[in-house]
Design goal:
The complex is a heterodimer of chains A (about 110) and B (about 110). By secondary structure, chain A is an all-beta fold. Chain A is built from no helices and 11 strands. In chain A, strands 2, 4, 5, 9, 10 and 11 form a 6-stranded mixed β-sheet that branches. Chain B is about 0% helix and about 60% strand. In chain B, the strands form 2 sheets. In chain B, strands 2, 4, 5, 6, 9, 10 and 11 form a 7-stranded mixed β-sheet that branches. In chain B, strands 1-3-8-7 form a 4-stranded antiparallel β-sheet, with no helix packed on it. Chains A and B meet through strand 4 and strand 5 of A and strand 5 and strand 10 of B.
Chain lengths: ~110, ~110
């Protein structure tokens, strides 16, 4: 079993839809949870960063962490064609390196 | 790309030749990383550095070596390139180990 599991998709939604992206993990010591967005032929860019459990909101993006279920989510409200990208979840323990999911490819159709 | 540049951005080489990729940062971050990204495998850590001349192996280090003689530069060397090393290579930097910022990537094709 991989340490971090992420459905690779692809996921296709109409413009304006709410998108839900998810990852599960097995290491209960993970404390830091990140979401990266990667456009085609670009490097991953940090989108959201959450420490421990709870929710974090930034504009149209909301990150949720449920440590009891070892499950994290990224919600995108009012999705736009410019949101079309691959979304990578990542997580780490304190003073340790990140572990990445395989990425979910999202397409938002006009 | 958080003050990170990679060179070259694209390279085509032949099997058996040595290749060196360069990562340069202007952020003065302590940690630097080299990853490769392949379809179906996601991002995999090759080597990382936690200071000048201090490096360690990642999960896919075989066939790769690294050097860091200055804070701002981290070099990845393929001593004798093989077709299995055809990939996209990303450098990343971090102030603390928990969160990293990535460069634009280098596309390497080994024929």
């Amino acid at each position: 079993q991989k340490e971090v599991e992420q459905d690779p998709g692809p996921l296709s939604v109409p413009e304006g839809a709410i998108v839900s992206l998810n990852c599960t993990y097995s290491n209960s010591a993970f404390q830091y949870f990140m979401w990266y967005r990667q456009y085609s032929r670009k490097g991953p860019e940090l989108l959201m960063y959450t420490y421990s459990s709870g929710n974090k909101e930034d504009g149209r993006f909301t990150a949720q962490v449920d440590k009891s279920s070892k499950y994290i989510s990224l919600f995108i409200r009012d999705s736009q064609p410019s949101d079309s990208a691959t979304y990578l979840c990542a997580m780490s323990e304190k003073d340790n390196d990140m572990r990445f999911g395989a990425g979910t490819r999202l397409t938002v159709k006009p | 790309d958080a003050g990170i540049t990679q060179s070259p951005r694209h390279k085509v080489t032949e099997t058996g030749t040595p290749v060196t990729l360069r990562c340069h940062q202007t952020e003065n971050h302590r940690y630097m990383y080299w990853y490769r990204q392949d379809p179906g495998h996601g991002l995999r850590l090759i080597h990382y550095s936690y200071g000048v001349k201090d490096t360690d192996k990642g999960e896919v280090s075989d066939g790769y070596s690294v050097s860091r003689s200055k804070t701002e530069d981290f070099l990845l060397t393929l001593e004798s390139a093989t077709s299995s090393q055809t990939s996209v290579y990303f450098c990343a930097i971090s102030f603390t180990r928990e969160t990293q910022y990535f460069g634009p990537g280098t596309r390497l094709l080994v024929l």
